[in-house]
């Protein structure tokens, strides 16, 4: 029934989109931006987590000092011995004193660098499927070489995860609230429309129209206003998101340049599909809301 | 919907007992406020009797569900006293409404509506908005809308109230033509000249009573005579 034939119901006689069009357009704009924020937070946290999970860093202090009376094994040697005996470790690389100094030397200068007692860093890659007994490893290392630090980046990652999860939840909450506002606007538009058009509604009833037909007229009106408004609001929002994504992606672009966001600001193809779907979901929401509001009100009216 | 019956009208509703046989033609007469419109409103189910019984197409109006009321109304054609055309729709769209409501296919609507507007002599005004039409033209749009879905019962409330006698007679010829195709017609009017000219059975409301005055034309309307001086509907 929707959109067919003549428009018996018009809420703005001059055919302008009016209040409802502006509200829906603005709400869709906000909703797409919020959804983009939520998807961005999710994608970035996943990207960073996947590049850091599976990596454990071990800091060995005073690596050259012996651990036994006979002076045969250094602390580093003892750590490596333990690591080799630990199942689940794939790749292992040592950033020795010389390499660390080479990294620091340009910043601190040759003299100062030689006086620093730097820890030796060991990077471990954990085998994908294997589960490394991190606590057991910590205990064994602590027993043999006290002061050795095992860092699985868990603390940092959990903070990042908590932050991005909050951003993500916040984004979707805004989308939900904006959807509610759009639905309430549609309800008001339909109620005022039923009032303004009450004589036409009565006439349609007298000619044998069922409530579903009358509701269909309101749906037709709301869709004719809400669909273009959604598409326009959504297009502006996606243009905004692309502009921001472009700025983040630009290698010379300041703040974002050092961080790994990936292509198009870190949003994946599926994310873009979701963003493009938001305006249509909103148009469908207004359509359903209009029908329910009209049917409920008509049942009470007569 | 409010009940707006005057005291005499209320009395009429207490004492009326009548039946309209299928395929008959009736005038409904009486002074303003006698209850003509209220009676019609009861037949088209906009008003339920507080006591007594109104049956339409053999169904008690009190027993009808919302959906059945809609179904029943689709078998009625109503010409409202004030036309009730939708102002922002063209004559064509106004006339098409009952077919749209009945879910008729667009192709059929596109064919039937211009035919009927031609029949009531408005082929030149198909796309005109109601406010650009004269009172008589608007009335004919309203009549076309009332008859487009081939109603079993046509109710016309003062269909000649806003036009001069010449046009009024023409409209009555239209109703007679419709009557001959099998429709029961009830025309509420206070125009005695019309009743005198057309000689159909009369239902008269006076002093709160309903009396039935048989017409000279037999009630069951099979084609019984050629129209004298058949009206040229294309001219207004």
Major sheet of chain B: order of its strands? Answer: 4-5-6-1-7-8
Largest sheet of chain A: 4 strands, antiparallel
What portion of residues of chain B is helical? 25-40%
Q: What gyration radius of chain B follows from the Cα positions, in whole Å?
A: 17 Å
Short structural summary:
The complex is a heterodimer of chains A (302) and B (236). Helix content of chain A is 66%, strand content 8%. With 302 residues, chain A is α+β, with helices and mostly antiparallel strands.
Commentary on this structure:
The complex is a heterodimer of chains A (about 300) and B (about 240). Chain A has about 300 residues and is an alpha+beta fold. Mean pLDDT of chain A is about 80; it is low at about 250-260. Chain A is built from 9 helices and 4 strands. In chain A, helix 8 (about 210-250) packs antiparallel against helix 9 (about 270-300). Chain A starts with 17 loop residues before the first helix and ends with a helix. With about 240 residues, chain B is an alpha/beta fold. Chain B has 2 domains: about 1-75 and about 150-220, Rossmann fold (3-Layer(aba) Sandwich); about 85-150, no CATH class. In chain B, about 35% of the residues lie in helices and about 15% in strands. Chain B contains 8 helices and 8 strands. Chain B has helices at about 5-15, 35-45, 65-75, 90-100, 105-120, 135-145, 165-180, 190-200; strands at about 25-30, 55, 60, 75-80, 155, 185-190, 200-205, 210-215. In chain B, strand 5 (about 155), helix 7 and strand 6 form a beta-alpha-beta unit. In chain B, helix 4 (about 90-100) packs across helix 5 and helix 4 packs parallel to helix 6 (about 135-145). Chain B is globular and about 45 Å long. The N and C termini of chain B lie far apart (about 35 Å). Residues about 1-10 and about 220-235 of chain B have low confidence and may be disordered. The chains are: A alpha+beta (about 300), B alpha/beta (about 240). The interface of A and B includes residues 205 and 213 of A.
């Amino acid at each position: 029934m929707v959109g067919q034939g003549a428009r018996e119901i018009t809420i703005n006689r001059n055919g302008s989109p009016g209040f409802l069009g502006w509200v829906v357009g603005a709400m869709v704009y906000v909703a797409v931006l919020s959804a983009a924020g939520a998807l961005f937070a999710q994608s970035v946290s996943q990207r960073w987590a996947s590049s850091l999970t599976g990596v454990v860093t071990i800091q060995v202090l005073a690596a050259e000092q012996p651990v036994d009376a006979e002076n045969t094994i250094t602390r580093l040697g003892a750590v490596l011995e333990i690591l080799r005996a630990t199942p689940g470790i794939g790749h292992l690389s040592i950033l020795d004193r010389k390499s660390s100094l080479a990294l620091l030397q340009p910043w601190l200068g040759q003299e100062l660098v030689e006086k620093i007692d730097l820890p030796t860093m060991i990077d471990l890659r954990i085998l994908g499927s294997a589960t490394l007994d991190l606590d057991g490893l910590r205990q064994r290392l602590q027993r043999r070489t006290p002061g050795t630090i095992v860092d699985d980046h868990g603390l940092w990652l959990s903070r990042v995860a908590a932050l991005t999860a909050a951003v993500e939840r916040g984004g979707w909450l805004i989308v939900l609230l904006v959807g509610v506002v759009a639905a309430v606007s549609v309800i008001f538009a339909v109620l005022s429309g039923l009032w303004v058009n009450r004589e036409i509604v009565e006439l349609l009833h007298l000619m044998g129209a069922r409530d579903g037909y009358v509701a269909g007229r309101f749906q037709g009106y709301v869709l004719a206003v809400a669909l273009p408004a959604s598409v326009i609001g959504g297009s502006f929002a996606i243009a905004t998101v692309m502009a921001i994504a472009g700025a983040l992606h630009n290698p010379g672009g300041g703040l974002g340049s050092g961080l790994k966001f990936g292509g198009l600001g870190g949003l994946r193809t599926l994310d873009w599909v979701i963003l493009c779907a938001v305006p249509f979901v909103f148009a469908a929401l207004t359509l359903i809301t209009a029908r329910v509001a009209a049917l409920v009100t008509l049942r009470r009216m007569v | 919907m409010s009940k707006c019956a005057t005291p005499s009208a209320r009395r009429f509703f207490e004492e009326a007992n009548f039946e309209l046989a299928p395929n008959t033609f009736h005038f409904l007469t009486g002074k303003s406020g006698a209850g003509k419109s209220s009676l019609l409103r009861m037949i088209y189910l906009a008003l339920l009797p507080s006591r007594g019984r109104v049956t339409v197409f053999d169904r008690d109006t009190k027993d009808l569900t919302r959906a059945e009321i809609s179904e029943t109304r689709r078998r009625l054609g109503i010409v409202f006293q004030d036309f009730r055309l939708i102002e922002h729709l063209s004559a064509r769209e106004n006339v098409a409404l009952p077919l749209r409501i009945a879910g008729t296919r667009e192709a059929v609507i596109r064919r039937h509506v211009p035919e009927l507007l031609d029949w009531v002599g408005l082929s030149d005004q198909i796309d005109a908005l109601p406010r650009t039409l004269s009172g008589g033209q608007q009335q004919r749009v309203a009549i076309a809308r009332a008859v487009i879905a081939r109603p079993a019962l046509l109710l016309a409330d003062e269909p000649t109230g806003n036009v001069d006698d010449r046009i009024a007679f023409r409209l009555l010829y239209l109703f007679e033509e419709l009557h001959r195709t099998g429709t029961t017609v009830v025309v509420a009017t206070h125009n005695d000249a019309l009743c005198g000219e057309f000689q159909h059975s009369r239902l008269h409301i006076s002093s709160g009573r309903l009396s039935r005055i048989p017409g000279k034309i037999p009630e069951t309307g099979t084609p019984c005579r050629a129209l004298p001086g058949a009206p040229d509907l294309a001219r207004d």
